[in-house]
Write a structure and sequence with these properties.
Oligomer: single chain
Strand order of the largest sheet: 7-8-14-11
Low-confidence stretches: 1-9, 76-89
Mean pLDDT: 80
């Protein structure tokens, strides 16, 4: 009435066939099997019986349930040949019989008279995974692909004071894949340039142009800040602004990251706009000479003028002039290299 208990036999043979210890994990078993299977594959001149033993050993040890039984009872020495099961009742993938777990198949084709070619191709049955599961045991959601499509919305919160190039990391939110650690999704901030404000770390920079009169007599103007506030900026009484001069306003820069109540500086660079050559009459120039501080040196005498050579100044774009001169120097250096490379004429020997 009751089934016969199988006799215990050698329970280390399969491990010895694969060349691993009985404590080997699934990754170690898979690597050992693939290495031995490639070496002993019949298509590559290997021993068919040895390859059969490898496949049988890996089929048992790669299935946790079968391995547990094998570790307790070993190989069952009972008559008859057991029928192989394809797939697994528990949904655990089994070894693909099309490629014997390698994931690749070797095909042979004739390319000419008496010439054949062997090439490896991805196994069409397991699609290169080396594992297969029967249709009745497949998960209805993933169809044995081990992953499913899912749409998820991530909210990215940009905190005050975050810098250009700073990263916001969502750990473990990347696409998942079987038997791998899920990666992260990383957002890298790209700060869009502002037409007037320039940012450098926690400080802000702007340029403002004032007239010569404002530079000498004082100025005030209203600046619309990034947060919508209106800032009144004015010079101190009696202050004279020089061209290219910078002034700083504390605590009007960007908020510091993680310390939003601490702010950088706002730097203002002043450009002074001078009047055109024809804007002042001779009488106005004389009036300015009386108002402004006296010249460091008065008019030159006739004797001093006779000892000088008169020059003529003209307008110039200094950046364009420097680029032109640099190009000219490069051309001269190129011409010198060509002259050095030319063969020299030597006198004939008698």
């Amino acid at each position: 009435m009751f089934g016969r208990v199988p006799r215990r036999s050698n329970n280390t043979k399969y491990y010895e066939v694969l060349g691993v210890s009985n404590t080997a994990n699934q990754d170690e078993l898979k690597k050992a099997y693939k290495k031995a299977a490639i070496k002993n594959h019949p298509d590559k001149g290997g021993d068919p019986e040895k390859f059969k033993e490898l496949s049988q050993a890996y089929e048992v040890l790669s299935d946790p349930e079968k391995r547990d039984i094998y570790d307790q009872w070993g190989g069952w020495s009972q008559g008859g040949n057991g029928r192989r099961q394809k797939g697994s009742k528990s949904g655990t993938p089994g070894t693909c019989y099309g490629c014997h777990g390698i994931g690749m198949r070797t095909i042979t084709r004739q390319i000419g008279l008496g010439m054949i070619q062997q090439m490896n191709t991805v196994c069409p049955e397991c699609r290169g995974s080396g594992e297969i599961i029967s249709d009745r045991d497949r998960c209805p959601s993933c169809r044995a692909n081990k992953v499913v499509q899912e749409k998820k919305v991530l909210e990215v919160h940009i905190q005050k004071g975050m810098q250009h190039g700073q990263k916001i990391v969502f750990q473990g939110e990347a696409d998942e894949a079987p038997d791998t650690v899920t990666g992260d999704i990383v957002f890298i901030l790209q700060v869009k340039e502002h037409p007037r404000f320039k940012r450098k770390y926690d400080d802000l920079f702007i340029e403002h142009t004032i007239s010569l009169t404002e530079a000498l007599c004082g100025f005030q103007f209203v600046l619309s800040h990034l947060d919508g506030r209106q800032l009144l900026i004015k010079s101190d009484p009696g202050e004279i602004i020089k061209p290219g001069q910078h002034k700083a306003i504390n605590d009007e820069g960007m908020p510091q990251h993680s310390r939003p109540f601490m702010k950088g500086h706002l730097f203002v660079k002043f450009n002074v706009e001078f009047p055109e050559a024809s804007a002042l009459s001779r009488d106005q120039c004389r009036a300015l000479e009386k108002i402004l501080p006296r010249k460091a040196r008065g008019q030159l005498t006739d004797m001093e003028l006779d000892q000088c050579e008169e020059t003529i100044m003209h307008d110039v774009n200094i950046e364009e002039e420097m680029r032109r001169r640099q190009y000219q120097r490069q051309q001269e250096a190129y011409d010198d290299d060509e002259e050095d490379a030319a063969p020299r004429v030597q006198c004939a020997q008698q």
